[in-house]
Amino acid sequence: MDEKVREKVALFRYGLLAPVLNGQVSNQQEYFAQICSKVHEVPFYGPKEFTPKTLAGWLLSYRRFGFDGLKPKIRSDRGKHRVLSREQEEYLIALRKELRDLPASVFYERLVDRGEILPKDVSYATVYRLLKKYGLVGNESPKSPERKRFSYDTVNVLWQGDMSVGPYIVQNGKKLKTFLFAFIDDCSRLVPFAQFFFSEKFESLRTVFKEALIRRGIPKMVYVDNGKIYRSDTFQIACASLGIILTHTQPYDAPSKGKIERFFGTVKTRFFPLLKEKPASSLEELNRRFWQWLEEDYHRKVHASLGMTPLDVYLSQVSQVRMIDDPASLDPLFLKREMRKVKHDGTISVNNKLYEVPPRFIGQKIEVRFDEDVVYVYENGIAVDKAIPVNFADNAKVKRHRSLSFQAMLAGKEE
């Protein structure tokens, strides 16, 4: 199980524990019993059922070690293959075809009960992967969770986030489209942060979300749509590491994020007209004028449904806000995570650029975490080195050390 799979499993476990961690559950015992009464589709493992003791163990691990505590432990026999013989595979496949109506988890339990396999020798995951390989896993899909209406009277319980198309900016004779990324607090209607960009990619979301956290603290929940950037592993892991529940709307269900949609409407009716009188000549000017409008107009204007300004509501409860102690601690959380095979010359390619890594990784598949500026090498979830951009000019001047056999061959020729 590689690091990316371990993170997916940890995200699944965090999703089950999040309501407890954020105080949404009044009776933990009843909630665990409810969770354990269902079959869950778990990344890598397939359909699984759990016991309250298992969930309690995960909860304790998260409180002690954070998000990393939810990752499956690395096997002590890592690198050694645990496989079924060909005869065992053929027998299990034939038996499965006879018992096709049983869920995979029940089929595995039947094998154990009959003494066909021993759990210590053949795990459920091994059998599940075999069945999945031959298309012998049930096609049942989990039901979509019921969407409930949110309404909170405490700041930073829920942030809604989204992106909206902004005004065009003319640069060098070309019209460039802009995109406004924003988050809004469900209780106060205060906007923790918002900014226009030329790109609608993840880097824009990352910039706005990090700045919102630094300025206005950590929310308990974030509610966004099903866009690719909002479902990215990087965003999900960052939220889980901060103890934030990440919730997504149903597809094409914009009204479920009513408050952020109304904010975008306010921007269009109250800020955009200012741009018609005097268009922004650059992205920098557009953001400068927008931030000034946001702080001097939107945040200080009495909200009709609140009877107060968004800023006053937020400040009245600021003592309850959980702030970021060290802004620099956010940087590692938002690094993209991918696997790379190290070439024989000790290099890897990231973002179409070559980087050098320590020679001990040559020929291995390693995990790298990176952004536009830096690339780190990770081993078992821990940063162990920093990849260095390849400088072809400098490398051409580096003196290579010849091998002993090659030097000996030259010496023999000279003699």
UniProtKB/TrEMBL annotation:
Pfam families: HTH_32 (PF13565), Mu-transpos_C (PF09299), rve (PF00665). Residues 141-318 form the Integrase catalytic domain. GO terms for biological process: DNA integration. GO terms for molecular function: nucleic acid binding. InterPro entries: Homeodomain-like_sf, Integrase_cat-core, IS481-like_transpos, RNaseH-like_sf, RNaseH_sf, Transposase-like_Mu_C. This is ISChy6, transposase. It comes from Carboxydothermus hydrogenoformans (strain ATCC BAA-161 / DSM 6008 / Z-2901).
